[in-house]
What we know:
Blueprint: E1 22-27, H1 29-40, E2 44-47, H2 56-66, E3 78-81, E4 84-87, H3 99-119, E5 122-127, E6 131-135, E7 141-142, E8 153-157, H4 160-175, E9 182-187, H5 197-217, E10 221-223, H6 226-233, H7 249-263, H8 266-282, H9 292-311, H10 318-327
Parallel strand pairs: 1-2, 1-5, 5-9, 9-10
Antiparallel strand pairs: 3-4, 6-7, 6-8
Helix pairs in contact: 2-3, 2-4, 4-5, 8-9, 9-10
Amino acid sequence: MSAFRTTFDVPSFPFDVDHSTIILSVGSCFAQVMAEQMQQLKYRVTINPHGILYNPLSMSNALISYCQANDFIREDIIIEVDGLWHSFDHHGSISASSREQLISNMQVAHEEGRKAVLNAHLIICTFGTSFVFQLGESENVVANCHKLPASSFSRRMASSDEMYRAMLKAISTVRSINSTVRFLFTVSPIRHVRDGMVANMVSKARLIELCAQLSNNINDSHYFPAYELMMDDLRDYRYYAEDMIHPSQVAHRYIWQHFVSTCMDKHSAKIAEEISKLHKSLNHRPIHPSSPQHIEFIESIRKQLAKLKATYPSFDFTWEEGKLAELQ
């Protein structure tokens, strides 16, 4: 135990992730942040084809849909509100100004998800909440309410058993077309304060129980304790963003470092660190951009980038080239 913190060991997983590992990440906005970090470091990760998903029932529905050869567009999930078209199975990032464009976006999402499921070595599922919204009197759980009136939905907390059965169905369906894929489950440390503090804790407890059931009962399924790292190790508001709800960048880096130590191949982790150092340089904002020191700094970055491109020719460094152009 160190001052002001209670640290704990996170056991390593019995597999390694490297830059050849094909990953699909689905889930909450915490999943989005962590997967984007991986993507920036050139890992082969597909992030939330349906957009951000919060509850295990919607994640199960999305994974199952990716296993279908064709995406069947159900009329009952499409709605138009104030000139914008939405799908109840998708996040608002898929929404569009016309029905035709929405359907096109949905088809692109399906194709991206199906390709990822077919080829994935690892699927990461990050659960955000046990609360679900059902449309009207139906039993259809929606992935997003798209800011419709609360009276349009009934809201309840799904049971651990219900979520477990839904995820079992998803895993079984995925493995019917990709028998060797591994699953990694985690619970988002972001608190849903609108649920109320007590209800949020009950919701998170059910998700932790769900992850324990899945990782204990399903072959090649594992649990990464992101929630526990935030709540028990980083038990201090200095590790939160200004809203006191979302983890700060420091907390994200800390959780990321634990993720690297638990499952990242050492050589791959060194590559990621090289790229991360380049990104830190590219994010530097000079006070005197025309000074000799800055010109020398730009030249050193150019050499760093050229070396990485030559060493790892399969990586796409378009973003880095753009950032370098901005600094010049």
